[in-house]
Amino acid sequence: MPEKDLSREEREKNAKWYVVHTYSGHENKVKANLEKMVENRGMRDDIFEVVVPTEEYVENKSDKKTVKERKKFPGYVLIKMIINDESWYLVRNTRGVTGFVGPSSKPIPLTDEEVKALGVAKKARVLESDYKVGETVKITSGPFENFVGKIESINLEKEKVKVFVSMFGRETLVELELNQIDKM
Asked: Are residue 24 and residue 110 in the same domain, yes or no?
């Protein structure tokens, strides 16, 4: 059966993650341009996801700690896609893209281990949670790792949880991923 006859979900299972090099500082523009072109050209069955990996960090400035976000890999964008002439051409000719990462710009897909290490693979949707509002939890990763807090709210759709953490003698509300907390 030709790939074009498969459903979008079946095609997405066959898609691989590729790394694209961009002009530094243009990662978000490339992401937006690619997503717009995929929609306009009806290529949602070839290009499934465009990600600019980011990480949170704590910045100390004049005795104030603020959580900020920065790009993990400046100058790179990750794309989950099925490579064919049309999809390759679309990505390669997007403004701000300098080429695919690989020998002589030949796209080489990331391995499953690399994708997992980068944290871009979609997790299964969480339909319900073992956590309850008011429950005390320990934060397992991120800038607040090893802090203990109390759950204020849970958003299953976004897989986020808001937790009050005691910092510098006051309660501070932080938003975390569900996978960043554990029961006490």
From this structure: yes
Domain range enclosing 157: 136-183
User: In this predicted model, what pLDDT tens digit does every residue of 82-118 receive, in sequence order?
Assistant: 999 999 999 999 999 999 998 876 899 998 888 887 7
Describe the strand order of the beta sheet including 148-155 as a list of residue ranges: 170-177, 160-167, 148-155, 136-139, 181-183
The helix or strand, by DSSP H or E, that contains position 14, with its residue range, turns out to be helix 8-14
Same domain assignment for residues 74 and 157: no
For the stretch 36-55, what's the b/e string if a residue is b when 16 or more beta carbons lie within 10 angstroms of its beta carbon? ebbeeeebebbbbbbbbeee
Burial of 120 per CB tally in 10 Å (0-12, 13-18, 19+): middle
pTM for the predicted model, two decimal places: 0.61
Please tell me whether residue 9 adopts helix, strand or coil conformation. helix
CA gap 80, 97 in Å, rounded: 16
My answer on whether 50 and 141 are in the same domain is no
Distance, CA of 143 to CA of 149 (rounded, Å): 14
Q: Are residues 101 and 161 in the same domain?
A: no
